[in-house]
Automatic annotation (TrEMBL):
Entry function: Member of the two-component regulatory system KdpD/KdpE involved in the regulation of the kdp operon. KdpD may function as a membrane-associated protein kinase that phosphorylates KdpE in response to environmental signals.
UniProt domain Histidine kinase: residue ranges: 1-150
Coiled coil: none
Organism: Magnetospirillum fulvum (Rhodospirillum fulvum)
Localization annotation: Membrane
Protein name per UniProt: histidine kinase
Length: 168
């Protein structure tokens, strides 16, 4: 289905609720990325898991950014935080089920499933997801690439034309 990335991210942000009360979540989605061919419910789960992690592992008062841009064949979406980051040697393992990094913070409870679920959903859409260092090498950036080779602008125009009442 065609879904609006702003709606998906907005719903995920709303779902983080009080989890995110100590963080500032900034959403920077390029207007060219409005429509995505994704399952909106599953993709909301991806962003919820990523925002949940960012708010769980990054200290209070820091900024969490959701950023999205489009190239002709791909959409790139990143969730970037200012926390401890993911060590390079763990950047693949964190996507394994039940794998957890010890950040020395016993309060950050979890099962170790969140990122494994994200990878399953993104790969089901033909995309990739990886963990990288955040801005200036600090914090974590989870980078998603989704293939979007369709003529999204043309499709958006057709959808809005279809939405016109008959006879207009
Ligand atoms: P769950 O999501 O199932 O509640 P979890 O958060 O531990 O538990 P994942 O979301 O799969 O599991 O993350 C795996 C591990 O990767 C985490 O335990 C954490 O150590 C590390 N990690 C994930 N996201 C971040 C992040 N934004 N910053 C630092 N470490 C992270
Ligand atoms: Mg998690």
């Amino acid at each position: 289905d065609w879904a609006d990335l702003n709606d998906i991210v907005g719903a995920a942000v709303e779902r983080t609720g009080r989890l995110a009360r100590d963080h500032t979540i900034k959403v920077d989605i390029d207007p060219g990325v409005l429509l995505l061919c994704v399952d909106p419910v599953l993709m909301e789960q991806v962003f919820f898991n990523l925002l949940d992690n960012a708010c769980k592992y990054a200290p209070p008062g820091t900024v969490v950014k959701v950023w999205a841009r489009r190239t002709p064949n791909y959409v790139t979406i990143e969730v970037i935080d200012q926390g401890p980051g993911i060590p390079p040697e763990a950047s693949e393992k964190v996507f394994d089920m039940f794998y957890r990094v010890d950040h020395g913070d016993s309060k950050a409870a979890g099962t170790g499933l969140g990122l494994a679920i994200c990878r399953g959903i993104v790969e089901a859409h033909g995309g990739t997801i990886k963990a990288e260092p955040g801005l200036n090498g600090a914090g974590a950036a989870i980078v998603i690439h989704l293939p979007q080779s369709h003529d999204i602008d043309g499709l958006a125009a057709r959808i809005s034309a279809d939405a016109e009442p008959e006879g207009t």
